[in-house]
Amino acid sequence: MRCLNELLIQGIDKEELEIICLQFFGKVSTAQKENTIIYSRNDKKPLLEFKYKNDQIQCIDKHDGFSNKDFNELKITIKRIADNTNNVKSLRRGILFSDYPIKGFCEVGDFINLVPVPSRCPKSPGSGFVMWGKYPFIVEYSYSRNIVEDKYTSLINAKRWYEKYSEIALLLNLLLERGVVCFGNSAKHSWLMNNKGKSYYGTLGYGCNNFKNEIKEYTKGRRKINEIDPKQYYSRMFLKDRNSKSINMEVPNDLIESIKTYYSLNGQIKRRFLDSCYWLHVSKQVIQYSISAAYIAMVNSVEVFLNDGGTRCKCCNQLKMGIAKQFRKFIDKYSPGINDSLKKQLYDLRSRLNHGDKIMWGDRTTTFFAGSATNFDDQNKFWAMQYIIKNALHNWLVEKGQQREAGD
Length: 408
Known about the structure:
It contains twelve helices and 13 strands. It has helices at 4-7, 14-25, 68-82, 151-175, 230-233, 255-264, 267-286, 291-303, 323-334, 340-354, 361-364, 373-406, and strands at 27-30, 36-40, 48-53, 56-62, 87-98, 106-108, 112-116, 135-146, 180-181, 189-193, 199-203, 227-228, 251-252. The strands form four sheets. It has a five-stranded antiparallel β-sheet with strand order 6-7-8-5-9. A four-stranded antiparallel β-sheet has the order 1-2-3-4, with helices on one face. Helix 5 links the parallel strand 12 (227-228) and strand 13 (251-252). Helix 8 (291-303) runs parallel beside helix 12 (373-406). The longest helix is centred in the C-terminal third of the chain and has 34 residues, at 373-406.
């Protein structure tokens, strides 16, 4: 029996339905059919079958062994969790890291605040610009929390708050000048060294506990973070290009509108844009290990929009317009003014890196030799591509906001 519309109802999403079913049945397995999973109990008899296409649930089949009594119980559980009266807006806080210190505070609409960590929390010694997330700050945000506490909602609430935190981190990494870093949802370990030169093996992370109800306290008397016109903001590729002598975090003055536009997107287009932001964040994370890998990930953030972006041949199903041409067309539209020769050079570099024909100079040597012309050329291409792509993705989001206002 087909039962997709009875189970995947308004108020829960695909992942939440999967969480509920796993907790309800206790076992899940992949079927021999492609893109199919089956829920069962201890006897492993199939009870509910999910079929997927492009990572979306296409249909749900109820097997004969799944009694009507249990099926109704599952539906009641789903409806209870989806019920708006059981879901309230709750505040959550997380830590992100910027390349610039945050000295003021920023209110992004009525649902996100960016504020410095309290004075008693750990801070990095020294000041000034660094490459990778030296300065911690707090992001405070609201999310939909289910107030009924049970084995289902404890997992769903955790999924909701982390999903919102992750979304905000990815958006801020795109929309802020040098981006931000978050550690993600899995522990990462490494050999570390303290300021006394002692080495130890530890977990990457940051502790800033017991700051409940303090957000309003450390916005008192503080100025707001400086806001900059977006065209000026996104044109600043290097620290030396900044008109201000400040080396503190600044934000574009359309930050609120950009984030509101993202949350107004629907379905696949919203998922695709977030996937694009994900690859941009991967580039930010891995650059300290490999500028080659960072470059490939950065270009992926645009290619996310291109895989379905052209008409296909009816005979062979191949794209009539290649990815390289689609890339240049996307850049022409959303980051205009870049000459054709540079666009070709930058994308050709991605192709050579991706297919193993080249490794950037900074990854080939054990020491950083700034005097190498090849090294300078590689770095300049990286920063040029980063500027072009961040500008293009921001303008893509601006266009969606304009279409929303026009009612398109």
